[in-house]
């Protein structure tokens, strides 16, 4: 990769291409090398320009963004950042894009001047992070975890807490689909815009044997259910212990995030040996301190290995802090989680 992140913008709207070009070109660490109005033009530009990162519109005429993304990930894997409108349809398509291997998704800059500045800063940070990610061909991304036959019988009363960020959607599809129908309750914080978490939970529910829901304040936890933290203005915690309830509460961002993995892990730490903490691929340090609290309380703590991460940031921070008991590949993670839950 060159010193500056060479970026190709793919969007069917001329005004949006111009807006994204202005935003990205204003960052001295990013160089916009091309503007493509649709995937066929983008394909030629990829061959000619060899960009480090592509920003890709989710919904386009002709060959849609998903079909183009799938071709990219099969034939020439490279970091792709999806730019989406915050609509129900946009959310569903974006979740599928992340499952196919897009590194991350960002909302198209919109709203009042302050919101546009905030969106612009996030876009630039995401593109730069994507350039440092480890992207693998789509054929290799289908985790062997689906082939594992985990035995739900014999697991004791436990709570599983999982945190993830960049690359986490793809990882969670693989991991959660490998858990049995009667798995211990699973609480998940995945850094994601508020408009996307409901669609994410619904899509996971169609793919997994366990039931997957977007968490609701006051909801009792139970076996066979995965609870996805809603994005936006609230943190998700466990209140009331092993047979407790979901607690959603407003609060300032922690380590830059809301909901925060640290907040979830800290709330689960009092369970001690009745908890398993898992930290997956992601940028930054969210979850490291909370996982350390879990380990010090006697919980089992697992981190995704560098080799299987899209971004080895959050797992690395937790490992270097001494919070991770064992690092594992994504394919080995489901069985390790269930083994930690057995009597």
UniProtKB/TrEMBL annotation:
Superkingdom of the organism of origin: Bacteria
What EC class is this?
Answer: hydrolase
Which biological process, per GO, is one annotated for this protein? chemotaxis
Q: Which SMART domains match?
A: REC
Record-level Gene Ontology MF annotations: phosphorelay response regulator activity; protein-glutamate methylesterase activity; protein-glutamine glutaminase activity
Principal location class: cytoplasm
The UniProt keyword set, sorted, is: Chemotaxis, Cytoplasm, Hydrolase, Phosphoprotein
Tell me how the protein is altered or processed after translation.
Answer: Phosphorylated by CheA. Phosphorylation of the N-terminal regulatory domain activates the methylesterase activity.
Location in the cell reads: Cytoplasm
Q: InterPro entries, alphabetically?
A: CheB-like, CheB_C, CheY-like_superfamily, Sig_transdc_resp-reg_Me-estase, Sig_transdc_resp-reg_receiver
Any idea of its EC number?
Answer: 3.1.1.61, 3.5.1.44
Does the entry feature the keyword Lipid biosynthesis, yes or no?
no
As its record notes, the protein acts as a catalyst of:
[protein]-L-glutamate 5-O-methyl ester + H2O = L-glutamyl-[protein] + methanol + H(+); L-glutaminyl-[protein] + H2O = L-glutamyl-[protein] + NH4(+)
List of catalytic residues = 165, 191, 286
Please give the residue positions where the record annotates the modification 4-aspartylphosphate: 57
Locate the CheB-type methylesterase domain: which residues?
A: 153-343
Q: What does this protein do?
A: Involved in chemotaxis. Part of a chemotaxis signal transduction system that modulates chemotaxis in response to various stimuli. Catalyzes the demethylation of specific methylglutamate residues introduced into the chemoreceptors (methyl-accepting chemotaxis proteins or MCP) by CheR. Also mediates the irreversible deamidation of specific glutamine residues to glutamic acid.
Q: Which family does it belong to?
A: Belongs to the CheB family.
Q: Which HAMAP family match?
A: CheB_chemtxs
Fetch the PANTHER family from UniProt.
Answer: PROTEIN-GLUTAMATE METHYLESTERASE/PROTEIN-GLUTAMINE GLUTAMINASE (PTHR42872), PROTEIN-GLUTAMATE METHYLESTERASE_PROTEIN-GLUTAMINE GLUTAMINASE (PTHR42872:SF6)
Q: What is known of its domains?
A: Contains a C-terminal catalytic domain, and an N-terminal region which modulates catalytic activity.
What name does UniProt use for this protein? Protein-glutamate methylesterase/protein-glutamine glutaminase
**Gene that this sequence comes from:** cheB_2
């Amino acid at each position: 990769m060159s010193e500056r992140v060479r970026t190709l913008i793919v969007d069917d709207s001329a005004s949006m291409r111009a807006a994204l070009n202005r935003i990205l070109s204003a960052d001295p660490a990013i160089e916009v090398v091309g503007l493509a109005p649709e995937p066929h033009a983008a394909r030629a530009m990829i061959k000619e320009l060899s960009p480090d990162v592509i920003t890709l519109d989710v919904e386009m005429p002709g060959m849609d963004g998903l079909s183009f993304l799938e071709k990219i990930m099969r034939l020439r894997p490279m970091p792709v950042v999806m730019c989406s409108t915050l609509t129900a349809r946009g959310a569903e398509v974006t979740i599928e894009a992340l499952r196919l291997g897009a590194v991350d998704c960002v909302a198209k800059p919109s709203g009042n001047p302050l919101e546009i500045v905030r969106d612009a800063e996030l876009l630039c940070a995401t593109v730069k992070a994507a350039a440092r990610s480890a992207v693998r061909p789509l054929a290799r991304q289908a985790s062997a975890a689906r082939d594992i036959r985990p035995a739900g019988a014999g697991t004791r009363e436990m709570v599983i807490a999982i945190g993830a960020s960049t690359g986490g959607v793809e990882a969670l599809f693989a991991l959660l689909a490998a858990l049995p129908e009667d798995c211990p309750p699973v609480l998940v914080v995945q850094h994601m815009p508020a408009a996307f978490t409901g669609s994410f939970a619904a899509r996971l529910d169609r793919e997994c044997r366990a039931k997957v829901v977007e968490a609701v304040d006051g909801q009792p936890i139970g076996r066979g259910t995965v609870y996805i933290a809603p994005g936006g203005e609230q943190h998700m915690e466990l209140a009331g212990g092993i047979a407790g309830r979901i607690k959603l509460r407003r609060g300032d961002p922690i380590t830059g995030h809301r909901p925060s993995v640290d907040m979830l892990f800290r709330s689960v730490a009092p369970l001690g040996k009745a908890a398993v903490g898992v930290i997956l691929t992601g940028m930054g340090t969210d979850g490291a301190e909370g996982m350390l609290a879990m380990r010090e309380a006697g919980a089992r703590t697992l981190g995704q290995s560098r080799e299987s991460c899209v971004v080895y940031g959050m797992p690395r921070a937790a490992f270097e802090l001494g919070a991770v008991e064992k690092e594992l590949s994504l394919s080995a993670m489901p069985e390790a989680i269930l083994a930690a839950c057995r009597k």
